[in-house]
Amino acid sequence: MEETSTNRAIPIISVTLLFAIGYAILRYHIMGEVPWQNLPFFIMNKGLSLAAFLLLVMNFSLGPASNLGLKVPASWLDARKALGMTGFLLVLVHVLMSLVLMGPASYGKMYEWSGGLSLMAGLSMLFGVLAFVALWAYNMSFQTFLREEAAFITFITSRRFMLAALLLGAAHLFFLGYEGWLAVEDWHGYLPPISLVAFVVFVIGYILNLLGRE
């Protein structure tokens, strides 16, 4: 019996979530010193943000990878829409959770002594918002009531727009965490920061898109 895309999407999403949340727990709680009381919200937010980025990169990059001759199962290609929609929903959850957490108590490194956001934090938030809007527009392109807008759909689903959306997300990650990327001695258990893991995944996905998207 032929495997359906729905059945394939579920295990991909499940494994991605388990890996991302598990990595956050390992890095911050087991190898780090973050109190376990922060697991349900602060650390979960980090894990969900990583899972969202992984799923979105897979959504954008499985097709180009297949075009380059890499062995990507047909069921994975069929699952791309589900991966992208799930990634977008996780981004929305991440945005809402981050708004609740926002403040010097949770993100002290993002704030100046005066109480305002630092320049790097401000740039990170700007690119994060722009990336979210780009993803929202991309997901809107699948809505039935917009499908008659041919010019809009063509632009939103174009290779150029896809790469721009990825770049905005990468800029958010870079300005948010690049200072911590350089301080290897401060990495919990020498495990790379979640923002760096996501950025490396972006680089791989971006190269695949540059080389393989038709």
Provide an overview of this structure.
- By secondary structure, this protein is mostly helical.
- 72% of the residues lie in helices and 0% in strands.
- It contains 8 helices and no strands.
- The protein is globular, with a radius of gyration of 18 Å.
- The relative contact order is 0.14.
- The model is unreliable at 1-6 (pLDDT under 50).
Topology, element by element:
Blueprint: H1 5-30, H2 39-67, H3 74-78, H4 80-101, H5 119-140, H6 150-156, H7 159-182, H8 194-212
Helix pairs in contact: 1-2, 1-4, 2-4, 2-8, 4-5, 5-7, 7-8
Task: Spell the H/E element sequence.
Answer: HHHHHHHH
Number of helices: 8
Distance between the termini: 31 Å
**% residues in beta strands:** under 5%
The largest sheet is: none
Classify the oligomer. Answer: single chain
Specify Rg, calculated over alpha carbons.
18 Å
What is the number of strand segments?
0
Shape: globular
> Which percent range fits the helix content?
over 70%
Q: Structural class, from secondary structure content?
A: mainly alpha
